[in-house]
Design a protein that fits this description.
Strand order of the largest sheet: 3-2-1-4-5-7-6
Region (Disordered): 17-45
GO molecular function: methyltransferase activity
Biased composition (Low complexity): 23-39
Largest sheet: 7 strands, mixed
Order of helices and strands: HHHHHEHEHEHEHEHHHEHHE
Helix content: 25-40%
Strand content: 5-15%
Keywords: Methyltransferase, Transferase
Length: 323
Amino acid sequence: MDQRYDQRAVFDTFSSTRVKAPSTSRSSSTATKTSNNSSQALKPKIELGPEEERLLLGLHLRVRDAASENPILEDTYASELLEKIDYDISRSAFKLDPTYVQYACGRSKQIDQWAQDFLDQHTFEDVLVLQLACGLDSRFMRLNRRKDVKWIDVDRPNVTNLRRRLIPHPEDGDYTLMSASVAEDDDSWLRRIPSDRPTLIIMEGLTYYLEPDKGVRLFQRLLGHFSHGNLVFDTLGSLGVVFTHLVDPGRKVDARFRWGINDASEIKKLDPRLVLRDRIFSHDYMDAGPFAKGYPPMFGGWTPLISLLPGFKKNGQFLHFEF
């Protein structure tokens, strides 16, 4: 029987831990104050470095999308997560142009679709989904999947520690949250993962933060470990690296781009098994138009001028490989 997850189960369990006002007809300011203080006390205090602030930036974009009239990703879990976090969301880093919502959530939606296609194509097989740099993403809950799908989310220890505090481990299904610094050459985490089944590797919002040599080695190690599967990820081109000091979201959370991938062939040459199945240019997806008017003002006020440079239309790509 094709048993599927109850996608609300994890969050319904977590939501039940909320502190609610006492059920009473008495209107007491003291009781209200006590309840508010108790609710605040349950919220994990977020003390993350600049790079980790990207977690909350992405989460905030998904919240804005879910609250819009025509949501793209419709990630209802994002707002529930954000409500549990004691963090100053009013910071200027979160006041981004609405086109960033379309860009980020459209990217996640496309990766969701590729992932769902993979799961649907392997309905009667044991499969593995490996998501690197999972952050606070809720993809494992968003997708329609069998309960026996082996799913592994991986991120740095400080991120996984936060995730464990916010999202209870699912009671049902084969889910693992693993702590590892995937860009380092220590493969102890990778050796713990089965390699003999169809595997979907997801890397969203990761590649451009890696040093180029470390990024190449990461791809090589992954492809050397797994026998066959699919690989989906997004990239930024060399323009993003050259002008990283102008990138608005990056400046606001003190994050810099390091690895620019201009063409899918740069990845394809790493393994002869790789076949490019799909490629989407964010410029086309966003319908950027002349002077990138419909594109996120990634480079601030310089974006219209930089959009005239060769390579701008290929600066952002969503890639789907099979191996």
